[in-house]
Amino acid sequence: MADKANSDDEFHDALTGETTCEKEATKSQLNEKEIDEIVEKQSTLQLDDDEEEGAAAATVASGGDGDQEVKQPDGEISLEELRELEKHLSVEELAANKEKAAKLKLEGNELFKNDNAQRAIEIYTEGLNVCPSDSSKERAVLYGNRAAAKIKLESNKSAIDDCTKAIELWPEYVRVLLRRAKLYEQDDKPDEALEDYKKVYEIDPGQPEAREAQVRLPPIINERNEKLKTEMMANLKDLGNMILKPFGLSTQNFQMNQDPNTGSYSFNFNQNPS
């Protein structure tokens, strides 16, 4: 299990060590743990349902003869477009693009460290636009780091989307699973958060946050569900009274009893309720 727990860091070390240029650059670059420390400082931020997505706003690039290429949020080209472009590239060119994406990741990390999250998002996006479509882990890291930058800008909903993309590419990406779980909690989605924490625990039972969340969140979810049930029953009662009123009846004329063995309900009519 310890090997899985450390897979993120080992992978990043391998990625950033591919070229001599990158080895020299990493001496002053931000590593993933430092990114997490900065993101952790944003943990008290509240989500704003009306937030402007900022970095996640869709952009449109004009092409020749008035044609327009519609890009995804953040200016990211779609995976289908990337694959189409790759059909015209040689093996050497694809390798060069992979190396360029690695350098862009390092540049984005440096911008992130220097509190230029907006520019970091743009650089991570540039990396995604050249990183080969079959380089799943490299693309997952770019999405995960871009999510971290978006958290700094309080674009948490867009950050959740990036975390999801990263996890789809790398299901055992523990660091980003934890990142998304915390975002879900801030967005008042404890069920989704608990699912992510459970996945983390399956991958690495030694993760303290995952263990703690599996004890802390179930009571919160149960309390929320009970509150919703009470509200639903009150609304049903109001609706029932509105329907029964023309007949001189109300919900008080009906007694609801739950069978302790099956959990099902039965109704008894009472002409003269007390």
Write down the Rg: 26 Å
Please tell me what the overall shape is: elongated
Mean of residue pLDDT values:
76
Reported for the largest beta sheet, the result is: 2 strands, antiparallel
Count of alpha and pi helical runs: 12
Strand order of the largest sheet: 1-2
Beta content: 5-15%
Protein structure class: mainly alpha
- State the helical fraction: 55-70%
Measured distance between first and last alpha carbons: 64 Å
Contiguous low-pLDDT stretches (5 residues minimum) are: 2-29, 42-71
Query: Helix and strand string, N-terminal first?
Result: HHHHEEHHHHHHHHEE
Number of strands: 4
Protein name: Tetratricopeptide repeat protein 1
InterPro entries: TPR-like_helical_dom_sf, TPR_domain_protein, TPR_rpt
Biased composition (Basic and acidic residues): 1-40
Keywords: Phosphoprotein, Repeat, TPR repeat
What does this structure look like?
There is one protein chain. The protein is mainly alpha-helical and about 270 residues long. It has a domain at about 1-170. The chain has twelve helices and four strands. It has helices at about 1-5, 5-15, 20-25, 30-40, 80-85, 90-115, 115-130, 135-150, 155-170, 175-185, 190-205, 210-245; strands at about 60, 70-75, 255-260, 265-270. It has a two-stranded antiparallel ribbon with strand order 1-2. Strand 1 and strand 2 form a beta hairpin. The N and C termini lie far apart (about 65 Å).
